[in-house]
Fold these 3 entries.
Entry 1:
Amino acid sequence: MYLAKVYVTLKSTVNDPQGRTIAGGLKSLGFESVTDVRAGKYLEVRLAEDDQRRAEAMVREMCDKLLANPVIEEYRFELVKV
């Protein structure tokens, strides 16, 4: 069994209005040293799989097909044996 920890973020060339809003909110709360915020998604996917290579291939395919939009987002993931 594996737990995939998937991190999806906008590519650096894509505008991030949500990140800008968060940065503005942090500044209004007194965190003046904040210069930029990029928002993203964090997902956990549990796999009933014993083979690490197969689990990695499955997570990569999940990200490419559904979890991330390859046009505007990039992703990375960690696999943890549970």
Note: The beta strands are 2-10, 40-47, 73-81.
Entry 2:
Amino acid sequence: MKISLRAGERVYINGAVLRVDRKVSLELVNDVMFLLEGQVMQASDATTAMRQLYFIVQLMLMNPTDVAAAASLYGQHHAALCAVCENREMLDGLAAIDEMVGGTRYFEALKRIRALFPLEQAILAGTATTETPFEAA
């Protein structure tokens, strides 16, 4: 896999943070877990339940040598979300995320969580429905 970075940009690879001083392309020739700087969420931005879940999974990806603490926190947070959520699309997404995390497919889980951010916002705003299309008919 080839990654292109701009000057000053960071990439997080297997727990290490690399910052480049000029435009550069990196070729990753083996299987590594990485995040580009734009995909990294700061703790201060984890302001909703799904954003907190993203942050927890991000920790699991960024620090692969110490996953146990984050995995425990993930389990608690995921279970709490499933317990209070009534929206079928959100519950299906949470199930898919749990499967990905269980298979250590953290990057895929982060993508799926990001895809649920708009739905979470709609739920919080009260504009999302808990009905399935068949129940509404």
Note: The first helix runs from residue 49 to 62.
Entry 3:
Amino acid sequence: MITTVPNEALQELACRIEPASTIARKAAIEKWNAVAKPIGSLGMLEDDIVRIAALVGSEDFSLAKPAAIILCADNGVVAQGISQCGQEVTCAVANNIARNESSVCTMAKTAGIDVIGVDMGMVTPAESSVIRNRAIARGTADITQGPAMSQEQALRAIQTGIELVEELKGEGYDIIASGEMGIGNTTTSSALASVLLDMPAKEVTGRGAGLSDDGLLRKIAAIEDAIEINHPNPDNPLDVLSKLGGFDIAGLTGLFIGGAIHRVPIIIDGFISALSALIAKRLIPQSTVSMLASHMSAEPATQSIMREIGLSAPIQAQLRLGEGTGAVCLIPMLTMAFALYNGTSFAQTGIDAYDPNLVKTLEA
């Protein structure tokens, strides 16, 4: 039986989020306009730097210590044959993260980004204590047979994501790339997207890690069965999340809310991360203040999700690896833009500055 979590729990979280600073935003725009280059010429990267300034409340901030946090969890729906591989792969990748050998670790090393793995609910725990154990349970239930988790478990996972942001901020991290690992989680995400976006399962479901035609049909059928059996309420995001989601998705939802509470920018990765950001927005609309888009996933529902969140992705590279790799790609771009933001001004060069009134620029 699913017990409903009182709205007070979410209202309390919402009350902890302060709005973006209009003063810091204006100061950051003015600082950009003083840099010796054409106004607005770094496009979305300038927007992101201004967005971070407004979030942290100052035009002067740091991006010196970035992290990528990878939330790992298993999903019972794998029993329906919706994935090429079994749940043992989730643990195997987590162990690779612990050894700093996974795909995201290899990419992050080149950019000086620390990768932090978290067990949100794997069936098999990681071998190394390097993976932070925050498991809500040892995997979720099969959504084709009933709810994935209770609402209490969903809220605990959200709270865990919030606490992880607080921990990382306390460890000195300035910006966090979000990522996940969990066999079957494109199925849970597509089920969530189908309900939250009011779109047929076949329109929001992709091949994930590379399903065959038959595998894709099984995946769509599993999603349709899960929705029919669980009757999720689209007007209650927590109900939808608990019935169709995963501990990784719930944790990522908390990560975005935590970013807003603790004033830390959180980078959205691909489809699953974006879906989690959408749930965060549906639960607490002001949580979008912490979000930065990285790339546009190849999964079908991503564009609809990003439109609702209100963000555009600067990287259009057809990335589909997962593990937070797309979000990690944004960080070097941001740090280069940030270097220019703090670079040579028109006043230092003796060149006349552009007049912002004569140039289409960022909205103040």
Note: The domain at 63-335 is CATH 3.40.50.10210 (Rossmann fold).
